[in-house]
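Course assignment 3, question 2. Fill in each field.
Student: A.L.
Task: Predict the tertiary structure for the chain below.
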Amino acid sequence: MGKYDLRIVLDRPEATYVPGERITGRIEIDVHEDCECKHGLWVSCEWKASSGGLGDMGEAGKQKLFAGSWRAGEHLTYPFDLLAPPGPFTYHGKRFAIHWCISACALLGLINLAVEKRFQLVAGEPPEEAQRGQVRSTPQPYRHAVKVEGSGWRELKAVFSLAASVAALIVGVPALVLGLLEILPRFLPFSVPFPLPRIMASGGIPFAPLIIGALLTSLGWRGVKRNLRAVVAGSKLGPVELELSSDVTRPGDSITCTLRFQPRTNLDLTEATAKVIATEHVWLRDSDDHAYCEQEVVTEIPTPLSPERTLAAGEIVVLHASVTLPSDVPYSFVGGRNKLLWTVGLELKLRGWPDWTCDVPFTVRA
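Answer field:
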């Protein structure tokens, strides 16, 4: 048994609050030995985002309730009153969860244990505001279009990335071959003919060309596959203008996306889709204590933009779709190591050509 026992009692048994409400309760102390709480008894409102790996945490309010002496046999009560914060809201996802708690700690010495009492923070209006008939604010409309130019920055970035990937292949493939020429004779009973001179002096690091070549070849090939599609698709569609009705929305509201472009050549559009996607991003550690990121889609709402059709060169094409979010979708969250991000993923499938894709972020809030 320690010098004292500490517990937290909330005035609301169900322990569920909305932003702006008062979180009231008391700290009860049973003192077993005389002691000096010289640095104070503190209570705070804290949140934690945990994923089984690297977590996030924050503090939304703190109060000092007492500082002084405690005597054995005393039963003490200290009331507290904290304001329910605006967020993040309590969340139970696939890869991480967000919890709220009231934390209390008496600072007596170097080692002081904290006691926690969890509560739920949910979206809603404080009862006093609802009684006064106050109307919650609406998100500002998305006043300007998000433009994705096929001949502009997006395509230019893809072109530069493609050029860098090709350069990596040009250097990596010969290095890989020359590395093999250095390594294979060490393990094979016969010589490998190749019309290139040996590049390493005797005593050099035999695996260096092989490793560098394999790395550059792998990176270059991945970059070519990733960027070639964007360059080719953009060159066929021409400048593409994308517009969202709002970059901020709420559960139960609708978000509308519109695409406008003029194809440079005749194209067969086999499918056009808009997907509203919520993705969890978490950071974990492996057995060697190396951090790595994993992602998992928790919500996906596909909506067709257009049926299969033929696009004529120079035709002004306008595609649009409206997606209504369910009322129970999770809210956006951005922590240092755990995130829940929303995007509108657009995809145009062209017969005989690479698909055109674009992801546009937006925010879901209360």
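Instructor remarks: The CA atoms of residues 91 and 279 lie 14 Å apart. The longest strand covers residues 267-285.
Grade: pending
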